[in-house]
């Protein structure tokens, strides 16, 4: 099962990247330079995940050479990590601890890249389809693949945290499918609601999203999340996670999360 997860992740990542490239070419050919520039700008935050990947390679004792740096510069660093996981799974099987560590690294990095890069791209393409060009096939396909890829990144993160629990085996495919449907529906409705609100009320959407962001950030601070030790970084972490909570819930604390999930959905609904 652990070999199937990175294989599907790599496939979705390739499909999403290909659709994004088609959207960029689409706007350029049609002379829509504004949407072209915004779509290209959505690529920039993804370099945070690429930089972190290089730092983790160095921390693991792998000095990044020119080839590895070039792959990360082209935003192909996670492709390299998925390929390494697939090769390790083929050689050692699913039970190796090193394979689990590699899978964990790429799941966390992919989630970070999806939140920083895929999510803004999804919002932009959804707005184009809803408010600008309802018949736009390429932006629609790009938005759909971005939604599916983002939902899968959240599922693979949950899958990895599930494997970390003592005595837990790989969850069955039915459980993963249910998680994917839940994440896709939750993200899709949230993104569509924000886009429709922006279509009707223009820049007031930033006020609504900002209020939600502040509320979630203060709520995270009240929980005394100790995942980050330094006070300044702890506040920054809560602020960043509060922005993510505008769209979805991510559990970052050990232990049962039923109460926190209930509070989140009670506020967000």
Question: Describe it for me?
Answer:
- The protein has helices at residues 4-29, 33-41, 47-59, 66-73, 77-92, 97-132, 137-164, 173-201, 204-222, 231-244, 258-268.
- The chain has 269 residues and is mostly helical.
- It folds into two domains: 3-201, no CATH class; 203-268, no CATH class.
- Helix 1 runs antiparallel to helix 2, helix 6 runs antiparallel to helix 7 and helix 7 (137-164) packs across helix 8.
Helix content: over 70%
Shape: globular
Secondary structure tally: strands: 0
Quickly give the structural class: mainly alpha
* Low-pLDDT residue intervals, each spanning 5 or more residues: none
Separation, N- and C-terminal Cα atoms: 34 Å
Number of helical elements: 11
Number of domains: 2
Q: Radius of gyration, Cα only, in angstroms?
A: 19 Å
Proportion of residues in extended strands: under 5%
Largest sheet features: none
Instruction: Indicate the mean pLDDT.
Output: 86
Order of helices and strands: HHHHHHHHHHH
